[in-house]
Design goal:
The chain is mostly beta strands. The chain has a single domain, classed as Maltoporin, Chain A (Beta Barrel). The chain has three helices and 40 strands. It has a 22-stranded antiparallel barrel. The protein has a five-stranded mixed β-sheet with strand order 1-7-8-5-6. A four-stranded antiparallel β-sheet has the order 15-14-39-38, with no helix packed on it.
């Protein structure tokens, strides 16, 4: 165990009773969830014109879910690929058939996390979660130019919730973790709550693991006039030893590269550290509420990693390229909005927000040789860089928005949102090649000013007691500045923004006295100026590459079978295809119109059953299915469908609980995401994982 591990354990463990699942109450038919992502005010998900799924913290604990993939495993039409370029603690979500690390918006307690650049998934902890909201489709106008296909919002328990709990767990590959969450004594009028956790996780892949420590301190103070003041402080320290993607040769993954082989240089690591301060207030005003949030984050990351460039075992010639980089990032977020609630069935929300991002990266690359089985890699720290690259980028996203809800008749609801977006981005780059003493670089600046908006209608066709049948329709028009490439090709050009227009039609029903929910939504989205990774001069670079169309249907069925039984089924059928889309392959421009988008399966499915008794024996089981998908844009390499099984059993009393969990029990090792930093290489599903946990409430 490292010295840092001992320090974090010393901070977390001493006063930590070991945790627990809260005692389960008898499920009540028709119990409603609430969500705030769609409108920024609490709403019942079935009453808004959007496909929204709420996963409660109780659901997560009943299913033993400790990461984003397991947490959202049963959400219809959503597939989470663990790992990826950002390291083994990261994930690459797919929503509406689009699997891109930056295509969705990650929100934590109302604040976009990494929103100005890319969602910062590696540092996310699911300790002390109250609920997770999944909003499919473009981000609402209140969140700006940030997402086309979905919003994932994680909401943690508030101070004064009264829940006190702790946990300890251990599993295969020397994995273990501890956590605590509890209210603290009141200070200076503040209600206070702290959540802290530490986890280390190993993998089948050699030299692949991560260590993560996380602390969240939440504070809430009532003030005069009904105002509530919020102050949250959060810090995450993460140290990852990354895995390697597997290269493709022709239509298949290279048979010359062993399944579990790591081609990173010795000492490779990804070490992001993030600290965040969030302030906010909620103040009652005439006919509504005025709310503001101000958040400031510092993030730094040290990177040392490498990828195969040639599938060769000839030690006389380098077959891999390594990268070392120091990245410093500053993020700021301000949102202030006022709600208006009238007696004439008309509610409105008006506000402004400002999202700021600044990043500075400095690094270089180097060539090296590593055997294809990954054995005896060279020490990355001892290999000098062959170049020095500097990248600086500043982003300013400003918006004025309004959102209104009108109930013109008993059965009808009409929603409309309009936003004016103003974005300014500036970039400077420089690069020096040591071997030739040549240098290049430049600067660019792009300003965009344009509207975006949404319109939705809900018709309550039938309602009786706890049951209902609602039909909704929605249209959204949005845009998003191109993702920033922090690779070492030092491109100074700022790409054109991506734009999308989408339609959605759906049904949300509840029957059998509130015990059966069925939700179906169909969508179509046209996507322009998509930013993709393309081989440029032997290195992957980001380019604008044409148009795509996404269509599909998502089905979600949730049943409360009995007091202790709960089940959910999810299915998504997605068609993701290129329209006018020309890409260069080996110097030959190729039209891809009609091809399926790479890594996008047409079919996704999941089914899960939970037996959650208040005391005594508990169990759950889940099956996830991912259909066939092409590994490349030319659609010449088709990957077979795969599935994974997960299950757990446990026993609990009023205060104590013990569990045994297994994830990917069938040990599927299929390709699940494509590397953006290496050409034609793919990350695999991590191997079988199991763990034992002890929990206690106090």
């Amino acid at each position: 165990m490292r010295a840092r591990d001992l320090l974090i354990l010393a901070l977390v463990v001493p006063s930590t009773p070991i945790l627990c699942d809260e005692p389960q109450q008898k499920p009540q038919a028709g119990t409603e969830h609430v969500e705030v992502t769609a409108t920024k005010v609490p709403e019942e998900p079935d009453k808004v014109p959007a496909a929204v799924t709420v996963v409660t913290g109780k659901d997560l604990r009943n299913r033993g879910a400790t990461d984003l993939r397991s947490a959202l495993a049963l959400v219809a039409g959503v597939s989470i690929a663990p790992g990826g370029d950002a390291g083994p603690a990261a994930a690459v979500p797919e929503i509406w058939g689009l699997r891109e690390f930056d295509a969705f918006l990650l929100v934590v307690d109302g604040v976009p996390q990494g929103g100005a650049f890319t969602p910062d998934l590696p540092v996310i902890s699911l300790e002390d979660v109250e609920r997770i909201e999944v909003h499919r489709g473009a981000a609402p106008v209140m969140y700006g130019a940030t997402s086309f296909v979905g919003v994932i919002q994680i909401i943690r328990r508030a101070p004064g919730s009264g829940e006190a709990q702790g946990s300890a767990a251990g599993g295969n590959h020397s994995s273990y973790g501890v956590g605590v969450a509890t209210d603290l004594p009141t200070w200076a009028g503040f209600s206070s709550r702290i959540a802290a956790d530490y986890e280390t996780r190993g993998y089948d892949d050699p030299r692949t693991e991560f260590w993560r420590g996380h602390v969240l301190w939440k504070n809430l103070r009532p003030m005069s006039g009904g105002t509530k003041f919020r102050m949250d402080v959060e810090a995450t320290w993460l140290d990852q030893n990354p895995a390697s993607p597997v290269p493709r040769e022709g239509a298949v993954l290279s048979p010359r590269v062993p399944l579990d082989s790591n081609h990173n240089p010795g000492g490779s690591s990804l070490e992001p550290h993030r600290e965040t301060l969030t302030l906010g207030h909620s103040t009652p005003v005439s006919s509504g509420t005025w709310e503001s949030t101000l958040s400031f984050s510092l993030r730094d990351e040290a990177i040392l990693r490498g990828f195969l460039t040639t599938v060769s075992n000839d030690p006389s010639t380098p077959n891999a390229v390594g990268f070392r980089e120091e990245v410093d990032q500053v993020e700021g977020y301000l949102d202030s909005h006022r709600s208006l609630v009238t007696k004439s069935n008309f509610d409105a929300l008006v506000g402004l927000d400002y999202l700021y991002g600044q990043v500075s990266a400095k690094g270089g690359d180097f060539d090296y040789f590593v055997p294809l089985d990954g054995s005896n890699p060279p020490d990355g720290d001892s290999i000098p860089s062959q170049s020095e690259v500097h990248i600086g980028d500043d982003r300013n996203f400003l918006g004025l928005y309004g959102y209104a809800t009108w109930l013109p008749a008993k059965r009808w609801r009409i929603d409309g949102g309009l936003r004016w977006n103003y974005t300014v981005e500036s970039r400077e780059t420089s690069a020096v090649e040591f071997a030739t003493a040549t240098s290049e670089g430049g600067a660019d600046r792009r300003t965009e000013s344009r509207p975006s908006g949404s319109f939705g209608v809900v018709f309550a066709a039938w309602e009786k007691s706890l049951d209902h049948f609602n039909v909704f329709m929605a249209y959204r028009d949005t845009f998003k500045p191109a993702v920033l490439d922090l690779g070492l090709d030092a491109e100074d050009e700022i790409l054109e923004p991506e734009t999308a227009q989408s339609w959605e039609l759906g049904v949300k029903s509840r029957t059998l006295d509130g015990r059966l929910d069925v939700r179906v939504s169909a969508f179509t989205m046209d996507f322009q100026n998509l930013v993709v990774s393309q081989d440029v001069g032997g290195l992957p670079a980001l380019v604008n590459a044409g148009n795509q169309r996404y269509r599909g249907v998502d089905l979600e069925v949730e049943g409360r079978i009995a007091q202790q039984w709960w089940a959910r089924l999810g299915y998504g059928h997605h068609s993701a295809k290129f329209l006018d889309y020309v890409q260069d392959f080996g110097g030959v421009p190729t039209q891809l119109d009609g091809n399926r988008v790479e890594m996008s399966p047409e079919d996704l499915g999941s089914v899960g059953v939970v037996w959650a008794r208040p005391q005594g024996f508990t169990a759950h089981a889940e099956l996830e299915y991912v259909g066939d998908r092409f590994l490349n844009k030319r659609n010449t390499a088709l990957a077979d469908p795969y599935h994974t099984w997960s299950a757990g059993v446990g026993w609990r009393s009023k205060l104590w609980a013990i569990r045994v969990e297994g994830v990917n029990l069938n040990d599927a090792r299929d390709p699940v995401s494509e590397a953006e930093l290496a050409d034609a290489q793919y990350y695999l599903m991590p191997g079988r994982r199991y763990f034992f946990s002890v929990q206690r409430s106090f």
